[in-house]
Amino acid sequence: MTIDQPKAAMPDLFLIRHGETAWSLSGQHTGRSDIPLTAGGEDMARDLAPVLTQLRFAHVFASPRQRARRTCTLALEGRTGVVEPDLAEWDYGRYEGLTGDQIHDLDAGWNLFRDGCPDGESVADVVARADRLIARLRAMAGPIALFSHGHFGCVLGVRWAGLDVTAGEHLALDPASLSVLGPKPRHPDVPVIVRWNVVSAERLV
Fold first, then answer.
1. d(Cα 45, Cα 135) in Å, to the nearest integer?
2. d(Cα 101, Cα 28) in Å, to the nearest integer?
3. CA 76 – CA 84 distance, rounded (Å)
4. How far apart are CA 176 and CA 76, in angstroms?
5. Which residue intervals of the chain are DSSP H helices?
6. Is 202 part of the annotated catalytic residue set?
7. Which of 52, 140, 170, 180 is buried deepest, with most CB atoms within 10 A?
8. pLDDT at position 142
9. What's the pLDDT tens digit per position in 92-142?
10. Is the pTM of this model over 0.70?
């Protein structure tokens, strides 16, 4: 007779989008381009420190892009995250650097979460990356900080909750926003979006 081992507790994931860049201001799709934070973006990252530095993260991971790594360093007051390639932004391929309006001039019916990107990542590519990362994170102890990007962050959120990737179209992540993914209260086996796109009170005005 075997004794069932208790399941490991589902970790809490704190998902932070990087701070403002020149291209986030202009609305240009920024995937593999390695663009720095603006001065305002650095201030946004520092504004996260009073909350994030109290959380005593068991693990900290950051996208390879400097905008995410710099946000991590500023928000955690010098702590650097382990570079995690799976946290990189969607590779936009031929649409890199274009605004949504420019893309729709080329393809009026285009939808990122349905169509993916020509010469970049397909929807299946990004879902596989998110699911692979989630499986690894579920095996870790929390809390875990993840410094990533807007569109990939939306994919991560919906896939954590077990939703189809097309639901990502209905989510938004502002620069330097904080979201929390974790277990549902009193239902520890149910993964949920606990908080989403939380920004400072000053930025809500």
1. 28
2. 10
3. 17
4. 13
5. 22-26, 39-47, 49-52, 66-75, 100-106, 112-115, 123-138, 150-160, 201-204
6. no
7. 52
8. 87
9. 999 999 999 999 999 999 999 999 999 999 999 999 999 999 999 999 998
10. yes
Residues of the chain with pLDDT under 50: 1-6, 204-205
Torsion of CA 74, 168, 11, 54, to 10 degrees: 30
Spell out a b/e string for 132-149, using b for 16 or more CB atoms within 10 Å of the CB, else e. Answer: ebbeebeeeebbbbbbbb
Catalytic residue among 20, 42, 89, 121: 89
**Pairwise CA distance, residues 145 & 30, whole Å:** 22
Q: How far apart are CA 28 and CA 69, in angstroms?
A: 20
Which pLDDT belongs to residue 121?
98
Residue 67 to residue 90: CA distance in whole angstroms: 14
Q: Is 121 known to be catalytic?
A: no
User: Domain 13-198 has what CATH class?
Assistant: alpha beta
